[in-house]
Design brief:
Protein name: Transcriptional regulator, LacI family (HTH and periplasmic-binding domains)
Structural class: alpha/beta
GO molecular function, one term: DNA-binding transcription factor activity
Number of helices: 13
Strand order of the largest sheet: 2-1-3-4-5-11
Order of helices and strands: HHHHEHEHHEHEEHEHEHEHEEHEE
CATH topology of the largest domain: Rossmann fold
Largest sheet: 6 strands, parallel
Number of domains: 2
Distance between the termini: 62 Å
Pfam families: LacI, Peripla_BP_3
Keywords: DNA-binding, Transcription, Transcription regulation
Strand content: 15-25%
Shape: elongated
CATH superfamily of the largest domain: Response regulator
């Protein structure tokens, strides 16, 4: 199936220009318009005519797109909390929410603009997006009001809602340092997530501010999975025997680390202290209870949909909204 992305590539223009041309906007030059229409004809592209006129119709449907849903883990409850926040805001503002999941292959098969128009979507909240996903760049050029959770994306029709991941990570590591720890490692998610990049940056800044040396081998990636963290822990600890604390970029990974540490005959926090990130429900049920950074996932969902509504009803440009966080010290940090 030919997509709007194919038309844009064939014509040598942006997806946004194709979108505007097909929707009858006047701010596209005549030369560009002809080039796009010729490309569409050559590729035998025929957009949904109902979707084509969507911009001129009243619609109260906002989509919650969960990207890479197949990699999500229901154990942490994060997706459910985001959905709860989105629905709470939708109820307040009188909108209907429809949930879609889009894998990488599905994103490659049908462009962001085409998907939204085919489903008559007025605006979008999108979660779980990687920086390498096709939709990440496409939504910036799109004229569909879109807000991304946990990835900074700003444009005329694109905004974001995040926790200040850099500052949260920096303060988390500072907190470990304040308890006497100087040999601190990090278990991160993956390099394609904005949150991973920011959290590692915060980790490095905290060490540098304390006059401690950043050692690259003390940072490993476990793809935000409990299993991945569990499997790498033995090698990580063996390669870094001087570690007294580990900052882990998600609670699920921290649980995996804790489980393996215990199996190795070590104690948390007496031998190794742990600081997680997220404050999922399970943190209060681990033994010992996990210390962590608390994120407001319900608030992220609520704020994201609220921003989409502002774009739709007030023509507000996209912006980056930062939500607060807090440190929750339970039982996994030892004072040295």
């Amino acid at each position: 199936m030919v997509s709007i992305k194919d038309v844009a590539k064939h014509a040598g223009v942006s997806i946004s220009a194709v979108s505007k041309t097909l929707n009858g906007y006047s701010d596209v030059s005549e030369a560009t318009r002809r080039k796009i229409l010729q490309a569409a004809q050559e590729l035998n592209y025929s957009p949904n005519m109902l979707a084509k006129n969507l911009k001129h119709k009243v619609t109260k449907t906002i989509a919650l797109i969960i990207s890479n849903f197949e990699k999500a883990n229901g154990k942490d409850g994060v997706v459910f909390q985001i959905i709860s926040g989105v629905y709470a805001a939708a109820t307040r503002y009188g909108y209907e929410v429809v949930i879609y999941t889009r894998s990488l292959s599905e994103q490659q098969d049908k462009s962001y603009w085409q998907f939204c128009n085919d489903h008559k979507i007025a605006g979008v909240v999108i979660s779980g997006l990687r920086t390498t996903d096709p939709y990440f760049e496409e939504l910036i050029d799109s004229d569909i009001p879109s807000v991304v959770i946990d990835a900074e994306t700003i444009g005329p029709h694109a905004g974001s809602v995040i926790t200040d991941n850099l500052e949260a990570a920096r303060l988390a590591v500072q907190y470990l340092i304040s308890k006497g720890h100087q040999e601190i490692g990090m278990v991160n998610g993956h390099r394609y997530a904005t949150v991973s990049i920011k959290r590692e940056q915060g980790y490095r800044e905290a060490l540098e501010e304390a006059g401690l040396t950043f050692i690259p081998s003390r940072v490993v990636e476990a793809d935000f999975t409990e299993e991945g963290a569990y499997e790498l822990t033995e090698g990580f600890i063996s390669a870094n025997p001087r570690l007294t604390a580990v900052f882990v970029a998600s609670d699920l990974m921290a649980i995996g680390v804790m489980k393996r540490i215990t199996e190795l005959g070590l104690r948390v926090p007496e031998d190794i202290s742990l600081m997680g990130f997220d404050d999922i429900v399970l943190c209060s049920y681990t033994t010992p209870k996990l210390s962590t950074i608390r994120q407001d996932f319900v608030g992220l969902g609520y704020a994201a949909l609220e921003q989409v509504v502002k774009m739709l009803e007030r023509n507000t440009p996209g912006y980056n909204k930062i939500l607060p966080f807090s440190i929750v010290d339970r039982e996994t940090i030892m004072i040295l």
